[in-house]
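Rotation project, supervised by the postdoc (A.L.). Task for the rotation student: set up a whole-complex structure prediction and record inputs and outputs verbatim in this book. Inputs entered:
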Amino acid sequence: MGLALGSGWIAHLTLPVQNRQPDAAELGEQMEQSATASIVGGFRSTVSGYLWMKADEYLHGGAAMRRLTEGEMRRNDARLASTQSPDGSDPVQHHNETSEIPHPNNDKRLGWGEIERSVKPWVDPKNHRHVNLRETIPLYQFMTWIDPTFVSAYVVGAHVIYSSDKSKIGEVIAWLHKGVQASPKSVALQTELGRYLAEAQGFDEAQNCLRSAISIGESAQDLTAAEDDALQDAYRWMILIQRKLNNKISEREYALRALKRFPNDPIALHTINPSYGR
Amino acid sequence: MTQTVRICSAFTRTSFLEMIRRKDFYAIGILMLVMVAGAGTFGFFGVRGLSVFVRDVAFTAIGLFSTIFAVMASARQITEEISRKTLYPLLARPITRWQLIFGKWAAAWVISSAAFLAFSVIGIALLTVFSVPVTAIFLQYLILKIIGLAWLCGLTIALSLYATPAAAITLSLIICFGSSACGRIVLLANADHPMSTFGLNVAYSLLPHYDYFDLGAKATYAWPMIPWWVIGALLAYSALHGAAMLLLGYVRFRSQPI
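Outputs recorded:
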């Protein structure tokens, strides 16, 4: 922990490069030329990655989940993980997940299984509940303090803050502003910020962010799957905002731009052809 | 029996003095303090509400350093007597070899437990300073860990009679920290290609289960106390498995020329 503290402090004070998105060409070069930047950067990515795994563990009160094995998927006999819905509707299914420690119905170990389920955190994977989401917020803050360029931590952290208390939208927007400051070229962050600004009825600023997201996404050579999804969301949010503001021309323009990249996007298709989907 | 108890208490007294004289206990204690204090000070940097995280770091540190200390203390017990040649005057007294092994195990267990309790006091003190509460399961955590240390000391002393001290320490630590992974691998293999109930239980019983003696994860997330029969079962496992380890060590020690 001392090392994590030290690396975060060094990153903030002595290596401004650490506070910028490391995908620019000159930054990559700086990482290669500066041994300190490289070592500190590697260490803080490891620590923030570890905390990311911990956040998932915290959601389940320490109980570990795992993906199904191929044998389990073939036999279809595993106890699949699902989460209770807060509003009492159908449980939310996790995709091909079960608990690491088997359920008694799937456990042929005699006493060992009962002992393990007693000494280690274990929940029945089917219809389990998550702990209060707000308890994981400090972890996301910690992750972004250690690694200001950890985009996923900002995105998921924003969702966690907003889900736990919808009146905290101002806090969410401020949180995402910090993320955008550290990673101005992140499509995901610009889109999320635009989305929450739109939720807070700040349409002008929302449009600025979404335009940035779309501009970065359209000019990028190679987007990751997550950034590609975020670009699609950016188009959608832009279309919806134009529809809300009754700007038919802009709405159509963004729909056409979205269809160039995402030809099957339903929101864009519906804008061009209102009978689509009926 | 009385003689065995006297032998055990003499070895324990000597081991305590040795522990105070050596620096490793203090070094480990300071390391633990820094680790937990470091985790707790994040509140000063604007990251509040990390109580679960600080508890997690505290219990991880306590478990980790207690294990390392126990392994190092146990591995030295007999091998240092042999290397310093103090074993000869010891065996010249009316002490049998099994009493020697048992006495050394008892000494290792007592000082390891004392070190563990000392680390726990440091950890709890720091958690109190940072206003991070612990729940009633902490008591079971202490009891179960002490039972686990008995098993661990038996394993390490047995290994030290078959291998060099460095190899014994390495193997013990691998067995301790790898026990959870081994169990997971067997379960995953069974999930993918189901084994027979008999085969799975034999495989599982032969594996070491040091991870079962650690309630740190449950204490971190403030789970309720576990059934006491589980602690009884693990006490039986520790006693039987640990005794088997010491017996293996005794068999080697008995035939070993000194």
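Student's summary: The longest helix of chain A spans residues 35-59.
Supervisor addendum: Chain A has three domains: 3-59, 65-119, 133-272.
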